[in-house]
Amino acid sequence: MVEIDYWAETWPLDNCNGRRHDFRKLARMDYLDRLRFRLEVSRITSWLQSIAPITIKEDEPAGLTALERIQRSYAESWHNDKDLGRPVSKHAYNHTSRDGQKIEHGATVWFVGRDGRIGRGTAYYNINSMWWVVCGKYGLSNLSTGEIFCQQPSDVRTKRNERQRRARLEGELASAVRRMDFRRAETLKNILFGSAPTFLIWAKDHGAYYRANYSGYTTDTIAAGRYTRAEAEAEVRRVPHELEAIGPDGERIKFARAA
Asked: How far apart are CA 72 and CA 185, in angstroms?
């Protein structure tokens, strides 16, 4: 099998994991880029056809509505229920929402969007613990059960951007330390953690520290993420043979696995 994966760095970034993981890539391309891409694909397929018989499966066509895209996915799925013509969730962990409710196919649900705002849409089962959520005619997201609420969250106007806020503040803290602007660093540290001491998490298998929000690694102590004692202890207890907490004075703390 030959798979051609493509994306462009020029279209707006919607997926937090990068443009490579966006849907409807061909439709997102600029007109001239789309023509160039089709020409290149034509050349590749012509060459492959000269070698052996091939079957070509293309990205979804432009202009499909969200429901049409879901139906197209169902038509290509190997996991469909024969009577319903779509996948069916048979295990509780595949349809239990973030607020502990059962997600029903076709029901209205709520979720936290990429911008941290609460969105509302209609849920359609995809596969495993993933659900399609349709917002409007064309809006479509593929969300896990841990990102979906069956009941409307309280205060929907409040932005849920705690992780982004903390990562931004920790980045500003590291920048202030590098500039030796210790007054600003102290202010940022108090905003983040108050007077509580902070800890680093050392991953022995990577030979590096955790970055902020448990995301990634670094060997730079300034760029390393800061954690409260409770956060560091909970993470180290999870895999004590691989992790250590490093206290404010540089002492290495090992916690036994949680009971």
From this structure: 52
